[in-house]
């Protein structure tokens, strides 16, 4: 080598024994091939290759394709229960809203989506898009003055007559919001009613089956069992409590509102205004009092060039005159010094010019003297 570099040594693969990873890979590959197509392996195998294939128990491997398939084939914990619950929710008509989502796997669909499922999914996505648009526009979903529980319970028939399309749309959104929320008061009332009914069942089951007259939540007199009467009373009490709660939390209208054309006589008081104008008119035309800076109000005696003037006007005027005279004297002395400095500079320049002329004359004489010696 011209540059003195030693040639690289080529590794000899045939000298050393095969590593454990190579043997494991060969064994795993042969087992996979034998498991996949044993007939092809037996037909194409030679005596040498068949002798190399191990007939013992295959070595377990953690990275085989079969194990991965087994992992993904097993469903997650609780997935089947959730799928069954989604199917139950789907069968319920009153829960078929945009908030109830049903998740299905591709194996359940059979590779093809049903037309009804597709249309239902499109309808839910459109409903979600409308909800998002309403949120972006900031539509207020709170109950209005005309949105009462009776109108909601009647399905929007008589309560929505003479109402615009926008108000009806907001009422539908409010109803959906109420259905999606949890009414803890109603849950508590249901629990109490269930406890009462369970306690009465021990006394006698024939009382619930007896027919009685009761008044439902709409004010109609009906006949039914005691259980139905108790349920109607519970619904009526819940509606009354909801109406009272709405009235309690609704903002109270101010009592001092003005209706119609009204002259507000108290907004303008002429006596006070005229007194102010008279005070301004009768004010004498006198010069304002002279006010000066109070040096004692702040600690500024440590500042550079600070001068505390006296509070007396005569003394203050005398101090101002002294300062003005000192200023004029200082300016006059500065001008005199600057004039003297200019004269000195001019005299020095003249001397420098004379010295330069003498030097030039001396150089010329020396040059001429040198020329005479040469001739």
Q: What does this 3D model show about the protein?
A:
Among the domains are: 20-60, no CATH class; 182-199 and 209-250, no CATH class; 333-375. It contains 14 helices and 2 strands, in the order αααααααααααββααα. The chain has helices at residues 20-36, 38-44, 47-52, 65-73, 79-91, 106-109, 115-137, 149-153, 165-180, 184-203, 206-209, 226-249, 270-281, 313-374, and strands at residues 211-215, 221-225. A two-stranded antiparallel sheet has the order 1-2. β1 (211-215) and β2 (221-225) form a beta hairpin. The longest helix has 62 residues, at 313-374. The chain is flat. Residues 40-55 have a biased composition (Low complexity). Keywords: Coiled coil. InterPro entries: CCDC174-like (IPR025066). Residues 98-108 have a biased composition (Polar residues).
